[in-house]
Design a protein that fits this description.
Blueprint: E1 2-3, H1 8-11, E2 17-20, H2 29-35, E3 42-53, E4 61-73, E5 77-89, E6 95-106, E7 112-121, E8 124-125, E9 129-136, E10 139-146, E11 150-155, H3 161-173, E12 178-184, E13 193-200, H4 215-218, E14 227-236, E15 250-257, E16 262-268, E17 272-283
Antiparallel strand pairs: 1-2, 3-4, 3-17, 4-5, 5-6, 6-7, 7-8, 7-9, 9-10, 10-11, 12-13, 13-14, 14-15, 15-16, 16-17
Helix pairs in contact: 2-3
Length: 290
């Protein structure tokens, strides 16, 4: 989910998700072998609220919800269904209502990625984004059906959202504190590519006392699992750095369990910061690979 949580300011929310992001459980290619874990099909509901406002484009309040469904396995691929409804109040009667719906499927080996994104802002619909990306040899071929028919290629080192999350888990298990990845998730008009920098904190054992428990930490499946504090900063690959430094478009922080579930979301869009508290969490039935 890391890829989807990040669209809030202009398309209702990146994360992914987001974010991807942040996320749900995934296994992909070499990263899957490194992590060698079973990832959890589940449904999660996140409650959004304004944590901080700053800068010239600050807002007075924010509220909303994210409903995320993840299912599948390494042998049949992974399906994500995401809907986020939000309301941003900029003051003086300026309120933006947004509704983002997305579905995606990613091959268990990270070779193929299908996506569709529909967005409405203040009841006005935008052109859907619909396409597929296929990894072949040393490159990735993206074929868009919407908003317009178009084909282009990406460098083969680019990863899809599921593999992004999987590689973060693998890096965390190996004790790494920094991970750089180039990520494609079909966001914006289907042509956006992000450079990402993930900073991974020290592991949090499952038996440690939790200051702000939620349904994930109370779940019997989750109680014994290790998690890591993670911050992922997203940079526009095509933007030029000023004075040798580039400001991230946004950053997202979360606690990532070893089975891929995320909690305690914080989404930083420079001018304001959104909190995403996990309000509901349900483990779904899964079919093991034969």
């Amino acid at each position: 989910m890391a890829g989807w949580f990040r669209n809030l300011p202009n398309r209702s929310l990146v994360l992914t998700i987001a974010v991807a992001a942040a996320g749900s459980g995934f296994a992909a290619g070499q990263a899957g072998a490194a992590a060698s874990g079973v990832f959890l099909p589940h449904q999660a509901l996140y409650e959004l609220s304004l944590l901080k406002s700053r800068g010239s484009n600050s807002i007075n309040s924010a509220r909303g919800r994210i409903l995320y469904n993840f299912s599948g396995s390494a042998c049949e691929g992974y399906t994500s269904e995401f809907r986020q409804v939000s309301e941003l109040d900029s003051g003086e009667g300026r309120v933006t209502l947004s509704d983002l719906r997305s579905t995606s499927w990613e091959d268990g080996a990270g070779k193929s990625y299908r996506f569709k994104i529909d967005t409405r802002m203040n009841d006005a619909g935008a052109s859907p984004v619909d396409g597929v990306a296929e990894r072949t040899g040393d490159h990735i071929t993206v074929k868009l059906n919407q908003p317009e028919s178009k084909t282009f290629t990406l460098d083969g080192s680019t990863v899809f959202p599921t593999e992004q999350i999987q590689r973060i888990v693998a890096a965390a298990r190996e004790g790494k504190s920094v991970l750089e990845l180039t990520v494609y998730d079909g966001s914006d008009n289907g042509e956006k590519v992000y450079n990402t920098l993930s900073v991974i904190g020290q592991p949090i054992p499952g038996d440690r006392t939790i200051a702000t428990p939620d349904p994930s930490t109370a779940n019997q499946v989750m109680k014994s699992l290790t998690r890591w504090p993670v911050t992922v900063s997203y940079y526009d690959r095509d933007a030029k750095a000023r004075d040798g430094e580039q400001t991230p478009v946004y950053a997202m922080s979360f606690e990532l369990f070893e089975n891929g579930v995320s909690r305690a979301l914080v989404l930083d869009y420079n001018d304001f910061v959104i909190s995403g508290a996990l309000g509901k969490f349900d483990v779904k039935d899964s079919k093991p690979c034969k």
